[in-house]
Amino acid sequence: MAGFRTFLNAGHAPTLGAAFFYFACSCGIWVINGAMAPFIGEAFDLTPAQKGLMLSIPIFAGALMRFPLGLLAQYIGRKNATLVEMVGIALAMLYGYFAVDSFNDLLAMGVLLGIAGASFGVALSLGSGSFPPRYKGLAMGLVGAGNIGTAVAALLAPPLAQALGWQTVYGLAAIGILLPMVVMILFAREPEDRDAHASLRDHVACLFEKDGWAFSLIYAVTFGGFIGLATFLPSYFYDQFGVSKIEAGQLTMLAAFMGAATRILGGWLSDHWGGVNTLTVVLVVISGSLLLCGLSSQSLALTVICFLVCFAALGAGNGAVFQLVPLRWPATTAVAGSMIGELGALGGGLIPATMGLSQQYSGSYFTGFAIFAACALAMLAMLRFMQIRWTRTWAEKGGRARTVPA
After folding, report:
1. Which residues does 248 contact at the CB level (< 8 Å), separation at least 6?
2. What is the fold, at CATH topology level, of the domain defined by 14-399?
3. Tens digit of pLDDT for each residue in 321-340?
4. Which of 9, 146, 171, 385 lies at a C-alpha separation of 20 to 30 Å from 25?
């Protein structure tokens, strides 16, 4: 506890808290179509492929919008950029409330939901900006735990949609985003770290190195898997097992909460055991649990257990990746983390679309699970190859922080 107080005193804790709250609310809105997919699918009689496309577009849009939001933050400051973004989120929700009447409108709404997904990079940079380099990794991990907002959306959106209508939920979200805006105005302050003044070249520098792409691909499996599955699961539980729409949201909430909670645990394990060691176990567990999810499609209880294990591994993997990023880019952690997060999130957009196509053309979701499991194994092979050089240059054996310079 004393160590955590030391950490909080080393930076500006109110800004850290405001960044976490902002990111949690944005994450919840980002996946709101996924939480309400059983309602929306029935309203427009969507095929599995159409539903998968509807769920994928917000993830792709969110990933692609992160970079423009980061550039905006260079000119007006990170705090101001979050306020501009939240105004955009409110306007997007009002569009959903008043104007979504067809499948094409749903696709347009998906693009607008990407505004909420763009919060990742600026939230991490804002929350970690006032902390010294040795604490940036922990600060980014705590802000990143704001993806617990996906669990809150899965829990609250279905009963609200059933009681008030699914379009009304958009209207409630437009009002709800005002709360993190007020918190941001009252409690956050603009950090003064050098990441705030990073150039375009600084932002993309890590992608001119093999390590930048390696981390992005691994994060596409861990974070991409988390956000993609969290978006897809309400539809899967409802369609595959015939549970109620509210029960589908509750089961998704359990899985998403597990993934959010273990993100911090993954960072802690990586500090003590090493990020490479942690990711090795994580990727094996992700692959195995996904195959079991596909094979256990006749048993709801077994499927839920497999998804809980899978999300625990995904969350721990997210924490492990961001234990390694500050070691590899100690002077530009927030900048490198933002770019890796942007590319990693793109992987999540493939999951709902792949699952929908798998169901529509093969009559089963198993192919989709198997493809994702194979991707996890491919990342494991890449990790084991890359870590040979990592542990000779910027990390200790297993991926721990070096105690002496390389």
Report:
1. 38, 158, 233, 234, 235, 237, 238
2. Growth Hormone; Chain: A; (1.20.1250)
3. 988 988 898 777 767 777 88
4. 9
